[in-house]
Amino acid sequence: MPAITADTLTLPRLPVLPPATTWRGVRKTVRAQSFLEGEGFQVRRPFPGVDLAMADPFLLLDHMGAVEYGPGEAKGAPWHPHRGFETVTYMIDGAMAHTDSIGGGGLITDGSTQWMTAASGILHNEMPPPELVAKGGLFHGVQLWVNLPKSMKMAQPRYQDIAAGDAKLLASDDGGALVRVIAGELAGYKGPGSTYTPINYLHATVAPGARLTMPWPEHFNALVYVLSGKGTVGREGRPLEEGELAVFGESGEALTLRAAERQSAWEILVLGGLPINEPVARYGPFVMNTRQEILQAFEDYQAGRLGQIPVAHRSSADIAEED
User: What range(s) does the Pirin N-terminal domain occupy (predicted)?
Assistant: First the structure.
């Protein structure tokens, strides 16, 4: 797993939390369901599946892989529209090429993140690079959809390219876990992602048997999703393994997690955000507040107001359709 790594003995450490710390309990755990996306690649999706309000401000989490593609097997998601939210694609192994209608894009690979704010509307594609299609190889990544509040849904689209080396690296208080802060703030350390909706987005590698404790913002919800390995969450020690999501309760100022023994490592995402608490109307690639706004999004897309596919990426079918 080549997501950026480091010797935890050389990194800033999370604080040792005092005995009087109040720990969040685990509200529920769920197992991700399998779906086919794009041209037919499989994803594991833990939410939506839980009550949407429990994940707010997050809308969807797709776990892609880990899978070893043979030659010609890699698939992607061709050009499609979005409006009303942000897509955050984090590649752990392998690579994905992104292009969009505002000129953003590039190769997302080995610990890098592309953060696309669709907002008022954008077209983009996410495709495996030609060399991965030709030769095959390991592919492992995650896409998170982050909702936008009503006041920001029609903002200008934007694109952020977050290199693997940009993530803020921290160690747990005893050095047994490596924490990559991609967005948000943990114990005063800030990640590079710029967010409209206040969130924390962390990837932690926890050594076998090691414990990870961290302070957590009082008004954020808290979710833990397992990329690989096994462990337990909460003071109650609820088991959590690959493909499972834990939803923590609302009260408490810190989280505690522990990796199981006899494994290479426990790889987890730790997510949280400030709930938006607004109505959600969603249909396919659009997430708005009302059904009328969804209908308007379809109308705007069909009229070309969500952007145009760049000329260099248009197929003969696209050009013929315009003619």
Answer: 41-146
pTM: 0.93
DSSP letters for 138-162: EEEEEEEEEE--GGGTTSPPEEEEE
Tokens of 160: 């952020």
Q: Count of residues for the chain? A: 323
Pairing of strands 211-215, 199-206: unpaired
User: Does an H or E element contain 88, and which?
Assistant: strand 85-93
The model's pLDDT over 12-33, given as tens digits with 9 standing for 90+, comes to 999 999 999 999 999 999 999 9
Residue 15 contacts residue 187 (beta carbons within 8 Å): yes
Angle, CA of 239, 245 and 246, to the nearest 5°: 65
Q: Which stretches in the chain have pLDDT values below 50?
A: 315-323
Question: Hey, where are the domains in the chain?
Answer: 8-302
The predicted pLDDT at position 311 comes to: 57
Fold held by 8-302: Jelly Rolls (2.60.120)
- Residue-wise pLDDT for 197-224, tens only, equals 999 999 999 999 999 999 999 999 999 9
Q: What does the CA dihedral 9, 269, 38, 196 come to, rounded to 10 degrees?
A: -100
DSSP state of 210: -
3-state secondary structure of 127: strand
- Coil, strand, or helix at residue 312? helix
